[in-house]
Design goal:
heterodimer, A: 192 residues, mainly alpha, 8 helices, elongated, disordered C terminus, B: mainly alpha
């Protein structure tokens, strides 16, 4: 995870360093580095919404905004906005690929460990417990809402919905208190 | 102010369970309701999700009087969300964590009281407006705001709109979020108190 973190920081630094003058050597270096390390991250860019946004940013905005000081095939556009947009696109491409590469290299377990290290004490214990109680919690919510809907007419009225929510919270508290009888990890290891 | 419900078990274990339960609830809501709202492209889906999240973590914080509880609930919810996706995706993870961090800071400073809950609800909902701009600022750089302003000026000129008209629209949008946030804070405050009373009544009835 540490190595992935260093690579991420290095790529983010490259992305921040991109400007219109150095684009011809900084961008190829960053993209080549990413492609050597993980080719699959290119897929993050293959989303039509993102591509459309980037296309509008480079080809649409310079025609529309800013002072039109340049002409290309009879189309007047703002060279300042065009340069700005181009740098933004380069920067976003590098950042998106770098983040994708980082998240592909770390597992959910490593994330949990990192959160535990980031002063979230007992996080792995809490998360393990949350995973265990999730099915019970889901059943509890489903049955509570089913009861609320079947028991009264016009259940969607604010007052009745509030009653349902109170009932749900009461049941959740009771459920949580029923779990309190379970031994903690340290207690169970002591018993062993 | 009513004290949290008394129990016989160790407070640390009780707090851990409450964080797991309410964090799990938040995560469950993000997985189910979040997917439905985003899938159906419901307008204000971010605000709806943030409102539900506010009610859940504020209710949880009422029962779990431990500093860092909201942040921990947020971490549980964020992990459950990425678990449901199957891979680590930075966007939703960061959004939930920042929401939890903002709420944690505010509740730690103002305290578990009506004002703290109102203010936290409002701030979290206002943050949902700012989040896309902050994320875009980080990805594209500060120049994206310049582009937005330039484009906005052009649109205003074409539609013959004045700055005050656009300002009114933004203010309206802002105040809708503030109002929804205030409602979330109010619900987050009143709901656990009502549930606590209900539980106390139930227990007094069951005792001979």
């Amino acid at each position: 995870m540490r190595r992935a973190g260093f690579i991420l920081v290095a790529l983010l630094a490259l992305a921040l360093a991109v400007n219109y003058r150095n684009q011809f050597y900084v961008v190829p270096v960053a993209v080549a580095l990413i492609l050597i390390l993980d080719k699959a991250v290119v897929r993050v860019l293959l989303k039509w919404k993102l591509l459309l946004f980037l296309a509008i940013l480079v080809f649409g905005v310079p025609i529309f905004a800013g002072s039109k000081d340049a002409v290309w095939w009879g189309i007047r556009y703002s060279s300042e906005i065009f340069q700005m947009s181009l740098v933004m696109v380069y920067r976003s491409v590098i950042i998106l690929m770098a983040i994708k590469m980082f998240t592909r290299r770390i597992s959910i377990q490593q994330m949990a460990e990192a959160l535990e290290k980031a002063r979230l004490r007992q996080f792995s214990q809490v998360f393990t417990m949350a995973m265990k109680i999730l099915p019970g919690l889901r059943t509890l919510i489903r049955t509570s809402f089913r009861e609320c809907r079947s028991g009264v007419r016009h259940w969607y009225l604010p007052g009745r919905m509030f009653r349902c929510l109170v009932l749900l919270v009461v049941r959740i508290i009771e459920y949580a208190e029923s779990l309190e009888t379970l031994p903690t990890r340290s207690e169970s290891s002591e018993n062993c | 102010m009513n004290a949290p419900l008394p129990t016989a078990t160790a407070p640390r274990h009780r707090e851990t369970i409450f964080i797991a339960v309410f964090g799990g609830l938040w995560g469950l809501m993000e997985i189910t309701l979040g997917v439905i709202l985003k899938g159906l492209r419901v307008p204000f889906s971010g605000a709806i999700l943030a409102t539900c999240a506010c009610v859940i973590f504020l209710t949880g914080r009422y029962f779990c009087r431990r500093r860092g509880a909201i942040l921990m609930m947020g971490a549980v919810a964020a992990m459950l969300k990425i678990f449901s996706i199957g891979t680590v995706i930075a966007g939703p993870f960061l959004a939930i964590m920042i929401e939890a961090l903002v709420a944690e800071i505010l509740i730690s400073f103002i305290g578990v009281n009506r004002i703290g809950y109102f203010f936290t609800g409002m701030t979290v909902l206002v943050y949902t407006i700012l989040h896309p701009f902050l994320a875009q600022g980080l990805i594209f750089g500060a120049n994206i705001y310049k582009i937005y302003l330039e484009t906005g000026h052009q649109i205003m000129r074409i539609l013959h709109l004045d700055l005050k008209h656009v300002g009114f629209v933004f203010l309206g949008y802002f105040f809708i979020h503030v109002a929804i946030g205030g409602f979330a804070g109010w619900l987050g405050w009143i709901l656990p108190r009502q549930a606590e009373q209900e539980l106390a009544q139930m227990r007094s009835r069951s005792q001979p």
